[in-house]
Every structure is written in structure tokens, then in C-alpha cells.
Design goal:
about 350 residues, alpha+beta, Aminopeptidase, Elongation Factor Tu (Ef-tu), domain 3, 2 domains, eight-stranded mixed sheet, six-stranded antiparallel beta barrel, 17 strands, globular, binds zinc ion
């Protein structure tokens, strides 16, 4: 576990609903927490939040980044009998949607619903014949008897999340609905806190960016990195742990929970930034794992590295089991290692740091 104040912040941050496009509640909590560790705070029109440590304007600027949003669903249609059909917000998985409790979020607050699951005795084709259900065949019951009654509680377009919150396995693993990627928002907040305490050792300025709208295409990160053009970016997001039954390691690589954060190679990851991170890990004896990126990293790194004239970037990922489910599972030890690796990598940067491939 973490120190008490950090632990409380982590749990509050993860529990607070922040589906893509509706991140304001979570962003408020993040901003409130990091404000004492920042020299200046900033946010933009769509709600990405930025905390900065200013050392000296002649020095290079390093951006550390995570995304604040989580996947979810939206109210797509309300039937005459008051049942709601859904559409997905980001990469939500319809195979796990049934028989779950959900919260529908709107200006009236939080409406509880259940995703209907026809009893096994009544199913015409048992378990849908093994096929993944289409979102149009999934419905939410909010206890309304008619469309009119349902419309008193919700409207088309309201975002929806699963009602699951947080728990721990064996005191070593954390389980939660939105670890992807509010655990990353937590990580950059802790890194900022460490850097503020060690400001006299810093030879670079620091921007900690908590971006909106990653799950639908990395839009928040794109806006803020275009605006600020840092000299280098270190991004953190979750990656697939491939150490559970049924995953083909030949196809998906080998990433284990508890064996440290992963460093990604290829695509947007700049070789010199990756090298600095690897050297930092070696110096501080932080265990890391390696991953190959073929075309895209599938994270905000893809949105950041090619802004304007290019921002040398690298991704450090947190291994996660059961991604995009309400029981996403990560190792607390890996989270601590990632915080240390990111902190020390920023502190390792020189006043004349220049990243080049030649
Ligand atoms: Zn993510």
C-alpha cells in the first residue's frame, strides 16, 4: 500500500466516474491534489489539466503524461416500455456487459440500472450461441414502466459506467473499474510530488499533463502537447499483462504482473529517450520488462510524438490484467516502481539535454 494520503487519493480518483468526454469530476479531484506540488496550474477548453514546476525558462521542458478518461457506454435509445439500449464509449466489451449494475450519469445525479440478462431457462439460444452480443441487443432496466417515466430520469446521450469500485487481492494487487488509466493519473501526481520535493536537483522544467479523451483517439493529449511543445515527453498508460490462462505469448509477448513496468520499443518511442529510461532503471536497480510496438502504441504517445516539429517521446507502461473490464488488476509493487522510474528519469535529464538519433 501507499502512504495514507496517497492511498486515499488513489481510491477517490479511481472511484470517481470520468467516462470519455465527461472527465470533469475526476479532473477536479486530480487538480485539487496536485495543486500544492505545482508552481502553476492550467487547463484547456475540453478539460485536460496541467500542473507545472518552473525551474528556469532557459532549461528544457519535460512533459509527463497520463490520460484521465475511462471507457463507458451511452444511452442510445429508450424503448416505449422504458428499457434503454446502449452504445459504447471507447473500447467497451459487450461480452461482459450483461447482468451488471450500472450508473447512468447526468445533471440530475446518478441513476442506478441493471443490464438485463434473460434467465438461462428462457434463452432461445443458450449463451447467445457463444457469439459476442451486439450492443443493440443489450439493454438497461432502470425500473421505469414507460418511455415517459424513463425520460424523467435519463436522456439520450447520458454516459454510463459499470458500478464496480475498488478492492485488493492478497494485499498486493489492486482491482478496479478504471485503472485504465486513472492509475496513470495517480502515478504522474506522485511523480510531480517527488519532483517538487527535490526541485533543487531538477535541471529541467516539468509539465504533468492529465489528458482527456484518450480512449476515443488521444485527442486531449494532442491539444495540450501542440499548445506547449515540450522538449521531451514520458507517457504512462496500462499495457496487457499476458500471464493469465489462454493468452498466446508468441503473438502477444510476455509481460508479467509484479515484474516491473514495461519499456516499449519502436514506433513513437524515441530511441534516445528509451535509452535514458533503461539506463535510469539500471542505475536505480528498478526491474523493467520490454515490449515491441509494431505500428501504434495505442496510447497518447501516438498523439504526442509527431506534433509540429516532433517531440521525442517514450512510453512506460503498467502491466494490467483484464483490461477494459470492471476488474482490471494491477500490482502495487509495479505502480511504485513506475513512480520511481519516472521520477528518476526526469531527474536524470541534463540542462543541455538533447535527444537525437544520430
Ligand atoms: Zn489507457
Amino acid at each position: 500500500m501507499f502512504e495514507k494520503e496517497a492511498q486515499e487519493f488513489l481510491e477517490k480518483l479511481i472511484i470517481t466516474p470520468s467516462p470519455t468526454g465527461y472527465e470533469a469530476q475526476g479532473q477536479k479531484i486530480w487538480k485539487e491534489y496536485v495543486t500544492p506540488y505545482a508552481d502553476r496550474m492550467e487547463s484547456d477548453a475540453y478539460g485536460s489539466a496541467l500542473a507545472r514546476i518552473d525551474v528556469n525558462s532557459v532549461l528544457p521542458t519535460v512533459m509527463i503524461e497520463a490520460h484521465a478518461d475511462e471507457i463507458g457506454m451511452v444511452v442510445q435509445h429508450i424503448s416505449d416500455s422504458g428499457f434503454i439500449t446502449l452504445n459504447r464509449l471507447g473500447g467497451s466489451d459487450s461480452t461482459i456487459a450483461r447482468a451488471k449494475k450500472v450508473f447512468i450519469l447526468n445533471k440530475r445525479g446518478r441513476v442506478t440500472g441493471v443490464v438485463g440478462n434473460t434467465a438461462i431457462h428462457l434463452q432461445e439460444t443458450k449463451n447467445g450461441g457463444g457469439k459476442q452480443p451486439a450492443w443493440k441487443d443489450i439493454f438497461v432496466d432502470i425500473g421505469a414502466e414507460s418511455k415517459e417515466e424513463a425520460l424523467e430520469m435519463v436522456q439520450v446521450g447520458d454516459p454510463i459506467i459499470f458500478a464496480d469500485e475498488i478492492d485488493y487481492l492478497n494485499d498486493e494487487l489492486i482491482i478496479g473499474r478504471a485503472l485504465d488509466n486513472r492509475i496513470g493519473s495517480f502515478i504522474i501526481a506522485q511523480v510531480l510530488k517527488n519532483l517538487k520535493k527535490r526541485k533543487n536537483e531538477l535541471r529541467v522544467n516539468v509539465l504533468a499533463l492529465n489528458s482527456v479523451q484518450e480512449e476515443i483517439g488521444g485527442f486531449g493529449a494532442r491539444m495540450m502537447s501542440y499548445r506547449h511543445m515540450p522538449d521531451v515527453a514520458i507517457v504512462t498508460d496500462v499495457t496487457h499483462a499476458t500471464d493469465t490462462p489462454g493468452i498466446n505469448n508468441k503473438e502477444h509477448g510476455t509481460v508479467k504482473l509484479g515484474k516491473g513496468p514495461t519499456v516499449q520499443h519502436g514506433a513513437a518511442n524515441h530511441v534516445a529517450v528509451v535509452q535514458l529510461i533503461e539506463q535510469t532503471a539500471e542505475k536505480h536497480e528498478i526491474e523493467i520488462q520490454h515490449e515491441a510496438t509494431s505500428v501504434r502504441t495505442g496510447t497518447d504517445t501516438d498523439s504526442i510524438f509527431y506534433q509540429r516539429t516532433g517531440i521525442p517521446s517514450a512510453l512506460i507502461s503498467l502491466p494490467l490484467r483484464y483490461m477494459h473490464s470492471p476488474v482490471e488488476t494491477a500490482s502495487i509493487k509495479d505502480v511504485k516502481s513506475l513512480i520511481e522510474l519516472m521520477t528518476e528519469s526526469v531527474l536524470a535529464m541534463e540542462a543541455d539535454q538533447h535527444f537525437s538519433v544520430f
